[in-house]
């Protein structure tokens, strides 16, 4: 079976991010203060992604559309494998996206999720970001 490059970090390097109706994710911070959310798809979902074989552009467009329907501002990354999410509580300027949804598997899951599930995912990520010893936690 082919596999999708899923950018999933080792379990020890991130924190679990679990919400209803979205496969379990991992969130971790990078040295520049950006928070990255990744996912490991179940075998059947990975097979569905492989069978559908959406281009990176189409996958990003679909995921960004769902984020927009959920009322969440976002920007597609230039390399087309991630979407940056604008976080209003962030001290970062509006032109930066401190929360990044990364990898084809996560974009696939986002593109198929409900608005409620997406809002819950982003809210849970922001809660973890605020609890961490970073500038966002001081808001």
Structural features:
139 residues, alpha+beta, 6-stranded mixed beta sheet, globular
Explain what the structure shows.
It is a single chain. By secondary structure, the chain is of the alpha+beta class. It is built from four helices and six strands; from the N terminus they run E-E-E-H-H-E-E-E-H-H. The chain has a six-stranded mixed beta sheet with strand order 1-2-3-6-5-4. Strand 4 and strand 5 (82-85) form a beta hairpin. The model is unreliable at 1-12 (pLDDT under 50).
What is the beta-strand fraction? 15-25%
What are the low-pLDDT stretches, counting only 5+ consecutive residues below 50? 1-12
Multimerization status = single chain
Query: Which sequence of strands runs across the widest sheet?
Result: 1-2-3-6-5-4
Q: Which of globular, elongated, flat, extended, rod-shaped describes the shape?
A: globular
Number-wise, the strands total 6
Query: What average pLDDT do the residues reach?
Result: 81
Structural class: alpha+beta
Largest sheet: 6 strands, mixed
């Amino acid at each position: 079976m082919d596999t999708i490059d899923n950018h999933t970090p080792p379990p020890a390097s991130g924190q679990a991010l679990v919400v209803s109706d979205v496969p379990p994710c991992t969130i971790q911070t990078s040295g520049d203060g950006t928070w990255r959310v990744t996912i490991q798809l179940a075998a059947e979902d990975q097979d569905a992604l492989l069978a559908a074989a959406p281009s990176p552009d189409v996958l990003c467009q679909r995921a960004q559309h769902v984020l927009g329907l959920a009322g969440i501002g976002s920007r597609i990354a230039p390399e087309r494998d991630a979407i940056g999410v604008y976080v209003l509580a962030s001290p970062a300027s509006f032109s930066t996206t401190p929360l990044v949804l990364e990898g084809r598997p996560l974009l696939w899951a986002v593109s198929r999720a409900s608005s409620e599930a997406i809002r819950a995912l982003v809210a849970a990520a922001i809660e973890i970001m605020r609890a961490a010893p970073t500038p966002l936690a001081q808001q």
